[in-house]
Amino acid sequence: MKFYRDTDTPGRCFMKKTIDMLQIEFKCCGNNGYRDWFEIQWISNRYLDFGSKEVKDRIKSNVDGKYLVDSVPFSCCNPSSPRPCIQYQVSNNSAHYSYDYQTEELNLWTRGCRESLLNYFSGIMTSMGVVVLFVWLFEMLIMIGLRLLHTSLENITNPEDPECESEGWVLEKSLKDTFKSTLENLKNIGKGNQVNAGEGAGDEGAKPQAVATVS
């Protein structure tokens, strides 16, 4: 936002256009709200009349010498509002007829762009999560169907009879027994690897002894 006014600097004009398009597309204003624009100078010095008393007074009243006003860029305006957009002197009730910025619904986007972007990307992530979940469930159904087909073909009693009935299952045993047997198989595999590693180390230790005996 602080680079919004630097349209004279090469490459910075694109920043102004990007922020304006962001606020229009996501219907937001500022980072956390429209008041964020009150705290920065978003109007370039090129477009300020330094001969004006109002401009001089505002610049002198600021410690950093910036021109701060209670105004927002045009992209903060809500086109759905029936009233013409009030983007200048937003907090000055006397500057506008029949207007009270504290009670009246402003014709500006009141939501900050940070919140809008978070909601947008959160929606994308939620949609992606739902798609991934459905794909995973679909793959699980296919795997269950293939498992039933595989076990039923293995247990067929008469392969020559196309109408022969056979039983198929997903788990041959209960879930608890299947988990125990899988755990035991993993333990046996680990023990087998340890035995093979020990035999390999013993063979390497025996080779130098055999060489010494021959010599």
Average pLDDT? 83
What's the order of the H and E elements? HHHH
Largest sheet, in brief, is: none
Radius of gyration: 37 Å
Structural class: mainly alpha
How many helical stretches?
A: 4
Total number of strands: 0
Proportion in β-strands:
under 5%
**Share of residues in helices:** 40-55%
Distance between the termini: 85 Å
Shape: elongated
Taking pLDDT < 50 over at least 5 consecutive residues as the criterion, the unreliable ranges are: 209-215
Overview of this protein structure:
With 215 residues, the chain is mainly α. Helix content is 49%, strand content 0%. It contains 4 helices and no strands. The longest helix is centred in the middle third of the chain and has 42 residues, at 113-154. The N and C termini lie far apart (85 Å). Residues 209-215 have low confidence and may be disordered.
